[in-house]
């Protein structure tokens, strides 16, 4: 299927109709804003059902090959669906680590067997994926991974622990970075990458309570867990390359993700809506000069961000730093979102000091929760500070820190 | 849905691409550091032979219609040229000239063909706009009587010394805004007082126009919107130039951070220097995106609301970014950065100048507020 303007326009109309009829009503409990925050079985069941519904309708992984459960369509179609999901305020498509990192990675470098085995269940939501990169003592220093995978015949025996395992307590599989060799000259060369089963003996995911008071990620302990060697992705000792590739998908540096709707997008329009509900100095808050200037600053940043993303597609306007805009994607967007959400709490006056459990909290504490939850994006997947190092070193060519 | 963000249009034509390539090479060739330094001390502030070459390339008429000898490519085609000149800190009256042409064209149209032909043919021109320090003021203090005789002065008229034409913004006896087209040669030498500008690559003059007779006076309903558009396009071109200067400033910082050692380490390995440098880079990319977005929103007609938002955002962002870049450049070069001979001095001076042209970042954010928030 190729994308002509007419077929895309028709599709847009179809998808809007479908969304109106099929986006589920808000349940009687708070849904997670992002895939990092699935904390209860209730939320999980709801989101799994919703993802399955979207896939069954043919609107998830549309540009993935049909033999693995996709639609073989032009990526533009998925783009339209993702936009519609945002516009219709649909619940998130939660199996993100499968849909956006593992899936594209397997389509890119996986074996035919891997693709057949895993990809369709990623799309349907029947199998949930988590990621085992960070470790308790090595958050951002991925090259220093200490979890051991020791070969024992046709199996590896895994020992160690991973942290910040999003969806870990529900996951069926983990993309796992573990050390298979401690004797290599370069620490990176001793790492291997596994598509590891989670529901085996010796693997335990313990939920971690977060700053919002909710759950969503885990510390995962491996105690003599046995995984078959067929779980290796790439060569033994070739894990670093796979991990780097995964991060490129994770950070949006390369395309191929099944759905961008892994977070409920919260934008300036939402902040503007909140403006109608507050006053300062006895007058509507939107008349406050200081507030106005802060909003204008956010608007400039939002616009510059999205136009920059478009500019990245014009090579002639990117000759000085060809990959700079793409490599700064996470840095720019997640930090902007943090400031936006913080502002959402600031504008509330005294109410900004209430939290989710208070029945007087504005929108059930939506903005406060969103602000706190946003740290998942400025810390996870390489902190803002690591991103700054990456941009400094790989875009500007500065020496390593 | 995204009423606040609005248009995200960004076009870059083949012509713009070619102009960017040509202009970059031209500036690299004609405006090396030694030449920039030499011109700081000169009276004119620019090289006459280089101006001639630039005229021969057609750059004084890029934006003008073919009927007056221009290329008919609009303001968008000038953006890559001005950006490149900013990168090379090139002293040139091009921006002043182009802005005068835009003001005259938008206020007068076809009747002013001969003046526009002069400009596309290489006669420098400028706009005398400010009465005093306030970009937000009325700036119509110069009065123009029924015989076209002016009275009053204008402050900080850019590149006035060489201007063949000076478009003076003022008001007539009825109090309506008018534009008096004054021949540069009609202004006596003693009526001009040069300023000592913070950016030594730039030139500006206070001019007392009292008693000078205009060659022509533009009035009517197009004048007010032409002045408004002149201010917005002026802000945009200043932003484009600032983006170029910021990129050169950034390159200078990066170069120093990659070569200077302290405590046995290249100082670029210190995150206290690296991370702010990254912020300069990101700010520069954002400014550049907004500049090319704005250029995509401008056409030959009166500027749309979308174009106004775009120009103001571009100026606000580019001003703050160049200010930050110039400031950090001095600081990061340490003791050397504090000296005259370090190029950081050129950049921080350019930043201070650029911030104040056509209104600073706060000026534009204040005007963005009703455009974005009250609709």
Verbal overview:
The complex is a heterodimer of chains A (401) and B (375). With 401 residues, chain A is of the alpha+beta class. Chain A folds into three domains: 123 residues, Butyryl-Coa Dehydrogenase, subunit A, domain 1, CATH 1.10.540.10; 121 residues, Butyryl-CoA Dehydrogenase, subunit A, domain 2 (Beta Barrel), CATH 2.40.110; 128 residues, Butyryl-CoA Dehydrogenase, subunit A, domain 3 (Up-down Bundle), CATH 1.20.140. Helices cover 41% and strands 14% of the residues of chain A. Chain A is built from twelve helices and nine strands. In chain A, the strands form three sheets. A four-stranded antiparallel beta sheet of chain A has the order 2-3-7-6, with no helix packed on it. Chain A has a three-stranded mixed beta sheet with strand order 1-4-5. The termini of chain A are far apart. Chain B is α+β, with helices and mostly antiparallel strands. Chain B has a domain of 151 residues: Butyryl-CoA Dehydrogenase, subunit A, domain 3 (Up-down Bundle). Chain B is 51% helix and 11% strand. The radius of gyration of chain B is 21 Å and the shape is globular. The interface between A and B is large, with 45 and 49 residues.
Mind summarizing the main beta sheet of chain A? 4 strands, antiparallel
Mean pLDDT of chain A: 94
| Annotated CATH architecture of the largest domain in chain A | Up-down Bundle
The quaternary state of the protein chains shown equals heterodimer
Give the total of domains of chain A: 3
Number of helices of chain B: 12
> What would you call the shape of chain A?
globular
The CATH architecture of the domain at 223-373 in chain B: Up-down Bundle
